Amino acid sequence: MKYTSPRHYASMKTYLLPDDKLETARLSVHHRIITKAYEGRLILAPVSLGSNDRVLESAAGSGIWALEFSASNAQNNLPLDIECIDISDKQFPRRHPSNIHFSVQSVTNLPKEWHNSFSYVHQRYLILAVNDSLWNIAIKELFDALVPGGWIELAETEVRLLSYGSGHCSKRLMQLGVYLPNLLEQVGFIDIHCETRRVPIRRSLNNDGLDRSKHLYDLWMGMKAPILAGGGYGIVKTEVEFDQLLQGCLNEWDESDEASSTYYIIVAIKPA
């Protein structure tokens, strides 16, 4: 199926979401949703960072997490050195503190000089970007990048635990999801634990002003181009069908008290 999207993508083959201004705005909302779900915490790993420690943020996107994390530590006179990487620089901020560095890198092929360099690694939502074999490589790269005793923190959505609602449209849409296996133990991490949050989507159930159903709508709309370019995966055949399906889902999410998203954050340590 031939489909030309008005959105900009770094590579539809490697990542299903765009890297344009609309996606940057969505990521800002997503950041607020995740932070709210975890009681306002930017970090869950029990790591104690010092002025000589380095932090790596993989899949940094707009860098919103790194900017807030840096600011929170600066209030405690701790100007951490933070490396932010992504496969595209389209969303990198034009202005940022000098202790935060942005570069185009792939987590599946980190610079060799970064081995044993970072005390803490933070990564969010690559579930739409890599398959199982690439996840093995990525986790091994992050393991090697950490110093002994360093912590990793991965935030993902467990697609099998998603409960967008019981409506017909939502059930069809869920077939497009992918699953991320937990590979940390296989690579060598220890003290692995997970914190899970189930967040209702319907706005009236949250009372925080965050429109989660619209956020989900924007998320899936951002994936329209690669989905259609991939033939619709047997779910939809045309752009009209996709738009109708997504509008149906939005209506269901807005009306359902059961519709929810399940997030999980996994933290683990590299043996000393």
UniProtKB/TrEMBL annotation:
Name of the protein in its database record: Methyltransferase domain-containing protein
Species the sequence originates in: Rhodocollybia butyracea
Highest taxon, organism lineage: Eukaryota
